[in-house]
Design a protein that fits this description.
The chain is about 30% helix and about 20% strand. Helix 6 runs antiparallel to helix 9. By secondary structure, it is an alpha+beta fold.
Length: about 350
């Protein structure tokens, strides 16, 4: 275990300023009533570390909703390629919950596999992730179903815990150690006994809350890896899809708030003095998703609905050692306008009443 440090909650602005002085700092900032987003810190920012889920997940810092790829300048028959990708600078992503931190390994498996996505890779190399343990999980949380410990978040470079009076800090990677060294004089060394007990008590309390949540006993037995390899067709043609999809509006909200969705579209925009090519998030719930010259391979809402959840619960784990493409953050439960979500799919196939 690395050495633990701490800073008074009342001095957090000093911590933010110290980090911001050496690297760009992104953290949850209030963006409306009862909601927050990861934004660049300034001394005017209304930071809200108590906010459990940001509207969009932390993945946007590595896989932006929209980003420039390249431009084309056309002059007669001459075409000039202009490298104008959005610059990637060293930054710190602070306050990432365990569910969002876990999503990074899922995105890594997609974007860092051959052929490597250099846009994503550059941001991952430049980013230092500071996770924040949960202390007040909500009824929509079910990260424990996927083996994620909200009280002791993995997947970052520094772990932090926030009590009523202190922020506790523990570096867990080389990047984390480097950031910690830059904060000498801001962070003070934690007491091996009293402060360790304070963190352990916070973890214990969080786990007790998680155990009482409505989805604490949500099981993935039906979607276990061995079973799916044998029964993939049975799942694909299961009658449950016929009922589940009917309430879906195909609005795509679930895909845009999801930390692990990685679908995107590439488009060209005529600026009037050249062509700008950019990438933007897309959704498998849309009727024109992956549309080709001959049409769309999934022409019905049932097919599109099934594709989304088959990918999360079947295709991805079948190709990634049993790891699911969901982290149980609960955003889709909170945001779906008709309350149709992955939990209802899991329960329907598990024989439970949704």
């Amino acid at each position: 275990m690395s050495k633990m440090y701490k800073i008074s909650k009342e001095r957090l602005d000093e911590l933010y300023a110290a980090v911001s002085a050496v690297k760009s700092l992104y953290l949850p900032v209030r963006s409306g009533e009862n909601q927050s987003e990861f934004k660049k810190w300034s001394d005017q920012s209304d930071v809200c570390l108590d906010s459990l889920n940001t509207v969009k997940s932390a993945k946007e810092l590595f896989f932006p909703q929209s980003e420039n790829l390249i431009s084309f300048k056309v002059s007669g028959k001459d075409i000039e390629l202009v490298e104008d990708r959005d610059p990637s600078e060293p930054f710190v992503l602070f306050g990432v919950r365990a569910c969002d931190a876990k999503s990074f390994s899922i995105l890594d498996s997609v974007f860092l596999s051959d052929p490597v996505d250099t846009f994503y890779k550059s941001r991952r190399e430049n980013g230092t992730v500071v996770t924040l343990a949960c202390r007040a999980p909500e009824e929509t949380c079910f990260c424990g179903t996927f083996g994620i410990d909200a009280s002791d978040p993995a997947g970052g470079d520094v772990k932090t815990w926030l009590t009523d009076t202190e922020l506790y800090w523990e570096a867990v990677s080389e990047k984390g150690e480097e950031l910690t060294k830059l904060l000498t004089g801001i962070l003070s060394e934690a007491d091996a006994d009293a402060d360790t007990k304070a963190v352990d008590d916070l973890k214990k309390n969080t786990k007790e809350i998680l155990a009482r949540l409505p989805l604490a006993d949500l099981k993935l037995d039906y979607f276990s890896g061995d079973r799916l390899n044998e029964k993939l067709n049975d799942v694909f043609y299961a009658p449950q899809w016929q009922e589940l999809y009917k309430s879906c509006l195909g609005c795509g909200t679930c895909t845009f708030v999801c930390p692990t969705c990685q679908c995107y579209d590439i488009r060209d925009f005529d600026t009037g003095h050249g062509i700008k090519r950019f990438r933007c998030w897309d959704s498998c719930m849309y009727s024109d998703f992956t549309k080709m010259a001959h049409g769309n391979p999934r022409t019905s809402q049932l097919e599109r609905f099934r594709q989304r959840f088959m990918h999360k619960l079947v295709y991805y784990p079948a190709n990634n050692g049993g790891e699911y493409s969901c982290v149980g953050c609960g955003r889709c439960l909170a945001k779906c306008p008709v309350s149709m979500n992955i939990v209802k799919v899991i329960k329907a196939f598990g024989g439970e009443k949704a």
